[in-house]
């Protein structure tokens, strides 16, 4: 008995530690991998890595992953348009931009992610989603789940439980989808609401949908059960062992170059800077002494930076030199509260030390920053 | 039209044929990729329309979302050209050819049609035009630099050689390998580079026998010595393909430029001293756990800040502000002591408000709050404005003495070095281990004189060297 388990341990460490050539060529036409990490950036980096480095001719790959709370926007989307960034910052929810297209989703540990890797030629989303539905039905035959022609999976013909996105490269492709098992719907709906009224953009908009957790339909279901059921169905269809290989996205030896990919996904330039050009037009009130001012702000933002900035203020409310200084500094800066805060407070050091002026400046700047 | 298939072998042979127009060695290297050639009668670049290939799933149109290149850029085969989107799928379109982009057929957000031209590429004539039936090589993106198929075999090259190729932007496919099994050696990379840059390279370390000089038979056998002569090593030219990069000064940096330019107008003078923190170190050790129970991290800064405030009570001119015309000095009532913080973006200076009415613990709590907000990038304007005096603990990073720049509209700043364990003499003339920290003050000489600064510093120092004395003056 002891010898048997020792042999198993040896085999597992062998699979994980053998040089690339051996590791990737398990018998059969498929490989099922699961991430041990809940970090959205690390997991997205694994997707990139597999897409760039693995040969999918001989075997396809199913990658299973879950994330701690995060909002994930599509490649060509606008985070300001898609979610409430202030709320995200307050609740410490991460924001990530994936490389595939499609709309915005909220991830937490009650949501599972499935990525199907194939060669470009074998890219076929319907088949993958049908596999998921088949797995769900095998697990709970009474579940009313089906795939729509928008590549969503609906529960009871009404509620969306899965959304899809895909990435196609030169020779390989991947299709990934979410599956709501037991996610926090309250947080989901509050973070995926943009506070902007006057935002104009050509970015891909998300299509909002009513969602439901599978757990609400059948309280005996857990994320682990769903992952297992899907892996089992995948193994069946690809005629491979129902064996899930665990991978650690922080392992640079196994996945050389992965830490750079992870870092890139976290840079401001990727998450915010890749936003297509957009413009905002917002109003706010400023209570100043015994009057209330209506201020209108128009800004054009390109690559996440303010290209054009226009603040409609009564004349002489701020000394004209200072106003133009403010506009000049804002132009070219990141549309980011942190950067603008630091900028405007530093500017305050070099203007005349007048309490009245300072309070007006602070009031205006705080309102401006709230727009970001 | 004539099709040539050039075989690759370890020795290169030129194939003479009347159908060959412009065939030189580089074209033969090209042949290593198992492609079918069509000779082109045009002597300068031929414009090829690169069409949008099939996306799959019956998709006929896509939206162009991002261009990675612009007109006039050079591209290599497999370089990314643009990103298009169709129905939740984002597709990276890569170039099929090497050449120069001459025309983009679409702008961002335009609808592009499958099968219609996407870009026009001018192909480099000497390389010929790859026909439609290019043999597809296995997936690799930037890895193109390191792997390429040669007749079905992977390019053999050691990691060091591959790295050299990558650093110099050389495709291994274009280098002729002279090692065993067409293995690419370091010399091959250097030779390739030499041809590109015209540099003179020394011969390989393996002794090459220099062919004897042509001489008449009459000359004696001395030439044999010359034949054996190995040239003296010449320093290898270090091939470096880095480029300068110019960026506009924006945001953070712009603000720094403004502030520091204004600071330059202040005539600074410096005053430095060392402080024996041995007793403070011990005190903090005792109080650290107590603070932790209350959920607060206690560093040395709260002590430094409180001591500074006590000093400012005696020397309020250091907590003042001079107006623009140097007509009036305003003595600020609040001691809002700024703490310089280093973040990813750069230097920020939030301040602790009204230190004169705060206890050391209060200051610690506030510092914790500012530090966590600072590292999360969420400091508000009120935290970043209203400072009257600043301390910069550069010692956490390193250093002993520093010359800090005063942040207008303030008139003084202190830079704290790192705490070092150094030998010092005590009252009895014995050597003991002392915890020494250096402080460097900078002050505005227009309203502050050296004596004032020195006395303030001595008072501050005395509070820290003998923390119990702070108790006497705490308000």
UniProtKB/TrEMBL annotation, chain A:
InterPro entries xref list: aa-tRNA-synth_II/BPL/LPL (IPR045864), BPL_LPL_catalytic (IPR004143), LipoylTrfase_LipoateP_Ligase (IPR004562)
Residue ranges occupied by any BPL/LPL catalytic domain in the UniProt entry: 56-242
Family: Belongs to the LplA family.
Species per Swiss-Prot/TrEMBL record: Brachypodius melanocephalos
GO molecular function: lipoyltransferase activity
Record protein name field: Lipoyl amidotransferase LIPT1, mitochondrial
Superkingdom, taxonomy of origin: Eukaryota
Gene Ontology CC, one term: mitochondrion
Keyword Membrane set for record: no
Catalytically driven reaction(s): N(6)-[(R)-lipoyl]-L-lysyl-[glycine-cleavage complex H protein] + L-lysyl-[lipoyl-carrier protein] = L-lysyl-[glycine-cleavage complex H protein] + N(6)-[(R)-lipoyl]-L-lysyl-[lipoyl-carrier protein]; (R)-lipoyl-5'-AMP + L-lysyl-[lipoyl-carrier protein] = N(6)-[(R)-lipoyl]-L-lysyl-[lipoyl-carrier protein] + AMP + 2 H(+)
Enzyme Commission number, as recorded: 2.3.1.200
Gene Ontology BP, a term: protein lipoylation
Enzyme class: transferase
One Pfam match: LplA-B_cat
Location relative to the cell: Mitochondrion
UniProt keyword Flavoprotein present: no
Keywords carried by this UniProt record: Acyltransferase, Mitochondrion, Transferase, Transit peptide
Described function: Lipoyl amidotransferase that catalyzes the transfer of lipoyl moieties from lipoyl-protein H of the glycine cleavage system (lipoyl-GCSH) to E2 subunits of the pyruvate dehydrogenase complex (PDCE2). Unable to catalyze the transfer of octanoyl from octanoyl-GCSH to PDCE2. In vitro, it is also able to catalyze the transfer of the lipoyl group from lipoyl-AMP to the specific lysine residue of lipoyl domains of lipoate-dependent enzymes but this reaction may not be physiologically relevant.
UniProt gene name: Lipt1
Pathway given in the UniProt record: Protein modification; protein lipoylation via exogenous pathway; protein N(6)-(lipoyl)lysine from lipoate: step 2/2
TrEMBL record, chain B:
Similarity comment: Belongs to the 2-oxoacid dehydrogenase family.
Gene: Dbt
Record's subcellular location: Mitochondrion matrix
Function: The branched-chain alpha-keto dehydrogenase complex catalyzes the overall conversion of alpha-keto acids to acyl-CoA and CO(2). It contains multiple copies of three enzymatic components: branched-chain alpha-keto acid decarboxylase (E1), lipoamide acyltransferase (E2) and lipoamide dehydrogenase (E3). Within this complex, the catalytic function of this enzyme is to accept, and to transfer to coenzyme A, acyl groups that are generated by the branched-chain alpha-keto acid decarboxylase component.
Reactions catalysed, as given in the entry: N(6)-[(R)-dihydrolipoyl]-L-lysyl-[protein] + 2-methylpropanoyl-CoA = N(6)-[(R)-S(8)-2-methylpropanoyldihydrolipoyl]-L-lysyl-[protein] + CoA
Keyword terms: Acetylation, Acyltransferase, Lipoyl, Mitochondrion, Phosphoprotein, Transferase, Transit peptide
Enzyme Commission number, as recorded: 2.3.1.-
Alphabetized Gene3D superfamilies for the sequence: 2.40.50.100, Chloramphenicol acetyltransferase-like domain, E3-binding domain
Any one GO CC term of the record: mitochondrial matrix
Single annotated GO MF: lipoic acid binding
Enzyme class: transferase
CDD domains, per the entry: lipoyl_domain
Pfam families on file: 2-oxoacid_dh, Biotin_lipoyl, E3_binding
Keyword Transferase on entry: yes
Lipoyl-binding domain mapped to chain residues: 47-122
Annotated protein name in UniProt: Dihydrolipoamide acetyltransferase component of pyruvate dehydrogenase complex
Co-factor requirement: (R)-lipoate
Protein source organism: Brachypodius melanocephalos
Peripheral subunit-binding (PSBD) domain boundaries: 156-193
Region (Disordered): 219-245
